[in-house]
């Protein structure tokens, strides 16, 4: 149990690498309070209770991270409506280590014909690793040229503000993927309209999201109206 607790602490740090400092005169940070309480319980040999408190701390940080990531969704264009932001999170720990992911997604629907665009933002180095093979293949100009010449599908590479990815289209479908510093963004359009996909993709604040990731803190929500 002790090694599992240590691994869970490691996952906790991965969920939010840098905790904000709380001024002495201000209210106690609930995450820091939970962590301190968990360490105290651990020293008392109350491992199960310590793990429970650490899990509560992780949940609070993941909620904060989800809010920050969601602020980078594009504004709703005229003639479209946006669904509720959906979120999910996971943190796991084993004796050999652990991993975590935090994800938010939103679906936009065009009123005229119910065409939908879904955008998902995921913070997880673990999941991004699964896309490394495709990323390496698409980095080869000869590979891209061969795919595009086949006529079955078209791939455009995306390189901007530290992000690397691609936009892929074929008959009836279009999707996009980009990754940067442990975070990835995906988008797809229900009827394969490439122009519609690019419109939403171009409205994502990739520069701001990359800057938040580079700060080693949870992405800070943008000011309303920006």
Question: Could you characterize the architecture of this molecule?
Answer:
The chain has 226 residues and is an alpha+beta fold. It has a single domain, classed as Phosphorylase Kinase, domain 1 (2-Layer Sandwich), CATH 3.30.200. The protein has eight helices and eight strands; from the N terminus they run αααββββαααββββαα. Strands 1, 2, 3, 4, 5, 6, 7 and 8 form an eight-stranded antiparallel beta sheet that branches. Strand 6 and strand 7 form a beta hairpin. Helix 1 packs parallel to helix 3 and helix 2 packs antiparallel against helix 3. It is elongated, with a radius of gyration of 20 Å. The termini are far apart. About 7% of the residues have low confidence.
| Computed structural class | alpha+beta
List the secondary-structure elements in sequence, H or E. HHHEEEEHHHEEEEHH
SS summary, helix count: 8
Under the CATH scheme, the architecture is 2-Layer Sandwich
> How many β strands by DSSP?
8
Query: What is the CATH first-level class name?
Result: Alpha Beta
Q: Tell me about the largest β-sheet.
A: 8 strands, antiparallel
Give me the Rg, rounded: 20 Å
> What do we call the CATH topology?
Phosphorylase Kinase, domain 1
CATH superfamily: MucB/RseB, C-terminal domain
Instruction: Please report the distance between the alpha carbons of the first and last residues.
Output: 47 Å
Uncertain parts: 10-24
Question: DSSP strand (E) fraction?
Answer: 25-35%
């Amino acid at each position: 149990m002790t090694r599992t607790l240590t691994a869970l602490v490691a996952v906790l740090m991965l969920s939010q690498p840098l905790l904000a400092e709380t001024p002495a005169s201000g209210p106690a940070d609930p995450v820091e309070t939970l962590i301190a309480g968990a360490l105290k319980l651990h020293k008392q040999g109350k491992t199960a209770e310590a793990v429970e408190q650490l899990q509560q701390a992780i949940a609070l940080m993941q909620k904060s991270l989800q809010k920050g990531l969601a602020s980078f969704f594009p504004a709703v264009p005229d003639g479209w409506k946006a669904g509720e932001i959906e979120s999910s999170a996971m943190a796991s720990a084993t004796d050999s280590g652990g991993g975590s992911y935090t994800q938010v997604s939103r679906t936009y629907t065009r009123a005229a014909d119910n065409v939908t665009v879904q955008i998902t933002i995921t913070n997880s180095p673990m999941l991004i690793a699964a896309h490394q093979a495709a990323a390496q293949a698409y980095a080869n100009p000869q590979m891209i040229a061969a795919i595009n010449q086949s006529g079955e599908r078209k791939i455009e590479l995306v390189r901007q503000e530290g992000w690397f990815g691609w936009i892929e289209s074929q008959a009836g479908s279009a999707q996009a993927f980009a990754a940067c510093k442990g975070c990835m963004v995906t988008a797809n359009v229900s009827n394969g309209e490439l122009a519609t996909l690019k419109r939403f993709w171009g409205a994502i604040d990739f520069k701001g999201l990359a800057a938040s990731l580079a700060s080693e803190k949870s992405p800070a929500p943008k000011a309303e109206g920006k």
